[in-house]
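Hi R.,

Here are the chain sequences for the assembly we discussed:
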Amino acid sequence: MEVDTAVDEGRIAPEKYDNGAVAVRSSRNNNLLLNKKERENLRRVKEAHKAYGRGKKINLRNIKDKKLRSNLKSLEGKVQDATLKAKDVEILHEETPGFLEPEHELERTYRVRQEDIQENVAISTAKKRFELKLDQLGPYMCEYTRNGGDLLIAGRKGHVATMDWRTGKLGCEIQLNEIVRDVRWLHQNQFFAVAQKSNVYIYDRMGVEVHCLQKHRDVTHMEFLPYHFLLATLGTSGWLKYQDTSTGKLVTEIQTKLGPPVSATHNPHNAIMHVGHQNGTVTLWSPNSTEPLVKLLCHRGPVRSLAIDREGRYMVTGGQDQKMSVWDIRMFKEVSTYRMRKPLSSIAISETGLTATAWGTKSTIWKGLFDKNVSEQKHVSTPYMEWGGEGKQIDRLRWCPYEDVLGYGHDEGFSSIIIPGAGEANFDAFESNPFETKKQRQEGEVKSLLNKLQPEMIALNPNFVGNLDLRSQEQRQAEKDLDAPPEENVVEKVRNKARGKNSALKRYIRKQKKRNIIDDKKLKVEAEWEKIKSERQGKKAKNEEDYGVALSRFARPE
Amino acid sequence: MARRQAHGRPLLRESGPKKSGSKKAKHSIRSTALNAFSIAADQVDGRGPRGPRTRQLDVEAEFHGKRRKPDSSDDEDEDDDDERPRKRIAREDDEGADDSDGLEWRVGVDEDDDSEIDSDDAFGESDEENLGITKNTSKGKGHKVEYSEGEDEDMEGVEQDDDTSSLGSEAIDLATALDQWQESESEQELENAAEDDESVSDGEESASAEEDESTSPSSDAGVFDEEYGYDDEDATDSAYNALHSVISDFQDGGKNGKERLDASDLGISTPKDAHMKTLKDLGLNSTKGGDVQKTVKKLKREDKRASKPGAGKKTDAPLPQRQQAKLDRSAAYEKTNETLDRWTETVKHNRRAEHLIFPLAQNSETHGVDRDAIAPITKATAANDLESTIMNIMEESGLGPSAPRETQALSNENLNKPSKSEMKERNAALRRERLLQSQEEARAKRIKKIKSKAYHRIHRKAEQRKQMKELEALEEAAGEDGKTMSLGEQELDDLNRQRAIVRMGGKHKDSKWAKKGAKAGRAVWDDEFKTSLKEMSRREIDLRRRIEGKGDSDSEVDSVGESYSESDADPGADPDAKRKQLLEEVELLRGEYPTTEDKLLRLPFMQRVEAKKRAENEALLKQISKELASDGEDKSSDDESVDIGRRSYGQPTKGEKSRPALAMEKINKPSAHAAASEDDEPLSASAAEGAEYGSAMTNGWEIAAKSARTSKKSKKGPKPQVAELGINAEVLTARPVGKTAVPLRQASRHQSQPKPNGPVGQGLEIDDTSSSDDSSEDESQADDEGVVSGFAAEKQALVRDEGDKVIDETIPGWGSWAGEGLSKREEKRTKERRFLKKVEGVVKEKARKDRGKEKVMINEKMIRKNGKYLASQLPHPFESREQYERSLHLPVGQEWVTKETFQDATKPRVIVKQGVIAPMSKPMYQASGTAAGGGGKKR
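And here is the predicted structure of the full complex:
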């Protein structure tokens, strides 16, 4: 959890007169006129809105329609209520987050060594610090699953292994005898993708090759978008390809035209791909556009590493120019730049906003590089913690979700160290559950498949779905796809298939009932059938009225 | 009313002809037997037409009158004709229910009224007759006899009948009215008494009463209400009016009535009685001729009218039945509407309600029970015996609701004033505690203080830096003329000096505290006192120095006693001195080992604890000293590394030899240290400083950074130094500040970037964003590769592509050139004929999101694939885009909201719980503001 700093309300000091009168500057927004309880309440609402608010309220006064006004008023009430309740529920958070804190000014948190921490933490936590010595098969890459339960490590020389790192149980271990360029878990710990020498392969948890994605050639970077079930790959040729892992279809292939990528990551907030290039630019891609949505000139040299915080507000980039810059990627503004000793080889941002950077054999963890609650970002001068310097060339570092653990893949294997305050203290089991059982995992898989988002829903603003199309009619006409095939009339098609007048529809429904599949076509046919039935009923009733029950049967059909 | 009439009329009309036939026959049979009675009936009948109310009230009289006089065909009585049969039957019903003497009749103006009417609808006229006959024969013998006895008695009997019956009816009316108004009992009694009287008068003067009623419509309304059984709040007004009218009626005719009653009771003949007697005496009763009878009747009537107060006025003819019915219907319609309107609010509310839960809460057993808070039980609110007895007991024992405050106050007082013995005890306890407090703890406290000193020192640096900046600002404000000292600074200096003088004025030395301490010899045993004494003496020296004019301008210094304050011996050397001092203190503390004198402390476990604490203290001390030492090293390394600055070539301004900075540093250091030592001579220190300054100025290097650092350490900055020089050592001439100021500021800017302590040594470097030369270098490098310029060009192209475009659609004519590369002249020629078309782009250049952001390029083209998920038009009820989009903002799913919110959002509209679903027993919501609105309209 983020610890919000108390915001100074900036209350205006009231002018006082000798007769005791108090001058009130603005009558509306005045805390002086409120009693303590009201003020407390106001503060509570304000805090709740800051943490969980859902945008600005609309002005209800200028709504003419009474019904609409009352509806919207109740809606605003509901929004407010939901916000306050979300804030109130915070007391249910069992764990309290915290960081290493110096006792006095002379103490430095970065002087704290892993040994010191290990001595002073609980045994179960101390166990989370471990090393895997694998010095034969080259620099290792590492990845954690989304719930932090499993670890996937892959050596450059083809050694791939998965494990439940908490228990130390090995899932599978395979030797591919091929160069491994990148490795990535898919939606759960059941599958993982490996970018090998020429193709991308998908393996299941036992290490059995399940798929070979032949369209993805010479892939160097991969990203998996969990809500869309998309595997995005970037090859040396500079093509960005999106593969739907639930349907197996290749969604799009986009040519970046910027040469082989140097680094890539995705924004967890809006599923936009961020790709760092040789010329120092970072480009933002969605599968819906053949051009980059945004281009940022971040460095004066290749962008070696990229990371985005989980809220999708800030991006930290490290360039060959030995600089690290922090970008606000909603405003597209560079908020600060830091000069480094060496170019950063890997960056990762934890759930609480700790930024781990690796350069050469060393690694530094920064705290407070960005803070969403302040308008002007601070320039941090001292790191939070440090690690390394033991001759291990760090290839990749990753934070373990929901844990205070940082994993390093280096040329001598894998190291896991403890960084206090890195993980989210209170997990949301709806999102991902670090302690999930097998059943829960299975159900979660189904649910996430049902809730799968379409690739067309990816945009810079992920809340655009349902918004009003602001294009003019002309624009729409101009942009209309004239080559698109006309929408076929399902009902007509079904009807024409058979001889009878309505029996075709009926028969279709009857047949479909057996199959128990509800799709668009069936719904349409059923609706049509209902319509016909009701029409018939109406006609019958009318005839009965006109001719009487007995004679109605002789009425002439129209 | 309307309903009743509707039922009643057909009955009458059907029975009309029948009635006449049968009645006549009967009449002929009984004509002689009922002769006396018919006369009496005539008399009653002669009262004239009546309103609905009186008709009801005096049914008895009417009944008798009509029955005995079936063939009366007077136009006057036509209206009565319609009414009569119904009344009669009602009466007879009553009679049937009554006891044998048949005199205690009730008029049915109660709730049973309707049912009675229904029953009388069921009877035919003939049935009625039969009933009447049977009754008369079986029960009414005495009655008949009485009637036949004479008019006197007859009249009396009628009167009495009237009395009882009307009393009954009135009593009901009043009771309801009084219930509604909840008047006091006494009042009710009064009313009852009045009623008695009134009923008597009613018998006599129903006509006048009727008149009154007809003139007051409100009373009519009241009658309506009662008849329909509305015990409605809305109808309270009319009920009230009815009551009033009743009372006023009574008042009108009260006097006469009373008189009469009294008279009749006493058997005294009133004038009227006398008159009747005269008639009887005349023997007219026995006359059988119709003409005579008629004339007698008329006479009587005239008589009566003359005797009444409102005599002379003729009552209006009642409205035609049809019209009356219409009026009644409309009134009834309004009434019905009113009742139904009471539900509209509830229905509306339920229609709009988000959730409806059945069975209704209104019908639940616990409805209306306040479960929120339990009010304390008082004697008055005690619900049952148990509670009240408990309350009584508590009251008696002084624990009741009225008691506690006093007792509390008492106990508070007791607490506030401890007794002597208590005080003694407390003191003893405190003493013991103090004794137990280990010496080690005291030591730990002191160590902590030193630690905090270190902390203060650091903060102080920052403070100094800040002040220095302010001073610089002041300097700038003062301008860069030759003035050596700005006004503000001079003032500050003066102020400091003054303060120091004041503080030296024996105030502290001879303070109460010091004297007391000296007297008690506290310095011998109290360490704290000792240290503070030391501190005081040190400060004295410090202050003295300041009086002489070379102390710093620290305003913090005046923090008294315990709180840490630093004395800056002199600006160049102060940190070292301080460190030294701190180290000394640490050493002192290290050497100190508290000796145990107390027996208690010699106990093994106490000693163990003490040892542990000591170890901790030692560790802490070690750490502090280490840190202090390391700080010193850092500093020295800082000093060495700091020689940055621009090298100025050419001749030095003054003909002095230039010396390398390092050498100068070496010279300076010892002097600074000397200055830091506690018992330094201020003169020497300043001299050393002056020397440093001078050398710096004359150096080949402009040691900007150095000077900046020194200035940061001292709050004084270069200017006071110069002034000082002027005072103390006139060896060197003061150099105008204007020149030094510039490099100084530059340097300070360089230094203002915070430098990390640790990571530098570990090979970590933190950005110097301000190191412009570096970044410019980078820029130039990057530009060599064309990255920046390429990016800019690309952006340009994008802007152009997405912006508005002008397309030349001119079609060149015959014989003219067209296309690119047209000569100027040709272009000019074709200018008039040019056809340009402006194509609107995606976004105007000024409205671009990346406008003004050099490093950002945002593609503003609409992404077609996303359009699939956009709403093509504003959905119906919404008036604007904001409203619509706002309505989408609250998610429903439980992933995004709390469980409670989710459940609220997904609750079905109608929830039916198990149980019997009873209909609404009463309207749940009242129309708010209708009454107020009505009032507003009236006004």
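The first helix of chain B runs from residue 2 to 30. The first strand of chain B starts at residue 356 and ends at 358.

Let me know if anything looks off.

Best,
T.
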